[in-house]
Amino acid sequence: MGFILIIFIAGIIILFVLALLFFGLYNGLVRARIGSETAWSDIDVQLKRRHDLIPNLVNSVKGYAAHEKETLENVVQARNSAVSANGVAETGQAEGMLSSALGKLFALSENYPDLKANQNFLQLQEELTSTENKIGFARTNYNRMTANYNEKLQAIPSNIVASMFNFEKRDLFEIEDASERQVPDVKF
Predict the structure, then answer these.
(1) How far apart are CA 42 and CA 93, in angstroms?
(2) Domain containing residue 163: CATH number
(3) Number of folded domains in the chain?
């Protein structure tokens, strides 16, 4: 009778330890997923700020460079595509096109000395530069958090728990077109 009681207690202890391990792995996956989602939200906030600055920038350039209509329209079109993009890959591609269009817009200002001296334009340019830096930091953080989450999905034993509860791999924020990796040459 005493031996059976010891086996029973040992069995309960083993089940308790396994349950703790299981819940710890599950909670770790949930925390990693939430971290990745939060980091994406941080990118989204900065992209919204960027998207909100662009119409003001375009309007300040319009008065000085009215005959550069195509460049201005390309910026607006790229902004609209970026605003309506869904998912990490589509957003990355749309934001790359927007960066390229903005680079052309800033390069255009070289031809307009009055525009380069305009305080509103300079302030918008500075805000946009600050926002671009924040976007860069947010992207780095998102990729770090997402890589951590994706690693947990593949590592033993958390991959067992992940497959049981259908945790899905998340995309990293990457530039797909190699030409978008090039830093635009903008001189003021």
Answers:
(1) 18
(2) 1.20.1440.20
(3) 1
Average pLDDT score, the chain: 87
What separation in angstroms does the CA of 151 have from each of 154, 163, 168? 5, 13, 11
User: Who's near 165: CB < 8 A, 6+ residues apart?
Assistant: 26, 29
Q: Provide the sign of the torsion angle of the four alpha carbons 88, 93, 98, 100, taken in this order.
A: positive
The domain of 67 spans: 34-181
97-131 pLDDT per residue, tens: 898 888 888 887 777 777 777 788 888 888 998 99
Enter the tokens of residue 182.
């090039």
Whether 170 is in a domain gets the answer yes
Evaluate whether residue 45 is within a structural domain.
Answer: yes
- How far is 81 from 167, CA to CA, in rounded Å? 30
- 155-187 in b/e burial notation, b at 16+ Cβ within 10 A? eeebbebbeeeebeebbbbeeeeeeeeeeeeee
Residue 149 lies in a domain: yes
pLDDT for res 92: 87
pLDDT-derived band at 186, boundaries 50, 70, 90: very low
